[in-house]
Design a protein that fits this description.
The chain is about 40% helix and about 20% strand. The model has no long low-confidence stretch (mean pLDDT about 90). The strands form three sheets. An eight-stranded parallel barrel has the order 3-4-5-6-7-8-9-10, surrounded by six helices. Strands 11-12-13-14-15 form a five-stranded mixed β-sheet, with helices on one face. Strands 1-2 form a two-stranded antiparallel sheet. The protein is an alpha/beta fold and about 350 residues long. It is elongated and about 75 Å long. The two termini are about 30 Å apart.
Amino acid sequence: MKPRKNTKKIIAGGLAIGGGAPISVQSMTKTDTRDAIATSSQIKRLEDAGCELVRVAVPDMEAAEAFKQIKKTANVPLCADIHFDYRLALAAIKNGADKIRINPGNIGGEKNVQAVAEAAKKARIPIRIGVNSGSLEKNLSMPQSVMKHVVFLESCGFFDIVIAIKASDVPSTVKACIEISEMTDYPLHIGITEAGLPVRGSIKSAAGIGAILSHGIGDTIRVSLTGDPVDEVICAKDILQAMGLRRFNLEFISCPTCGRTEVEMIAIAKKVEKFCLSIDVPLKIAVMGCAVNGPGEAADADFGIACGRGTGAVFKKGKIIRKAPQQELADILIGEIKSYVQNEKIY
């Protein structure tokens, strides 16, 4: 892991992006924005999942008007996603957008971009320049396209800029993010666009986003999945936690099992993990299938179990505190965790 780059700090609705602020988690609503009730309901679900900024598509003026109502119920900053018509950006800014996302290459020329920049500057909100490989100007690389638009916004006296540069394949995106990071100090929104359905899309996103983060690049992330946007938030949080960049919930580890395993490890692991999902504390929990992996390899776990033939051991910080039959191990471990968090008054 390279040290994280210190980028310029941008504020969107009270959320700091860049400048050493925690790498924030974003998502985007999948509802018809013109349906304010459905969109607000989805935003609430995203908030509950830990999303810190939500992007909302604004495809027409009806959606721009609905944005005003949606904004009233949101408890996180909202970014209006604009394409093709700069007037939609102006309407979204008027109706309370905390951030505007535009692709300057498809919004109708510099005069229109300037109008958006002036409105955003007056409202004191940032603009995210979003350039994807699928909407690129001819004869320009993604970094070149981004910098062209950055320079123009700066010429308009606008400097509250967030950059997003994405492709649907990992190598191109990683390469482009490294290049643009070397060209500017504006904060970067990172992700792999059009990653796919939840399982493979999460793997692809983890590979790409993880690679970019390992270079010290990235100030806010969005996982782009074909499915429930809550899955995007869960995946993004898991990536940040796996990279050691943020801690959102209890860390659960379990061995993959092998020919030495003599218990129903998968069932035990699933039961403990299900419980762990409800605990939001900085603990590490381990479920190990034999004496090889636990407690030795999981000595740094706060609590764990190591299974054997029909029996097993419960351990704490690498030390065995109790032995019990196989069928009782999961419940005993869960009980130890509950007791700890209650006594520490952190549950």
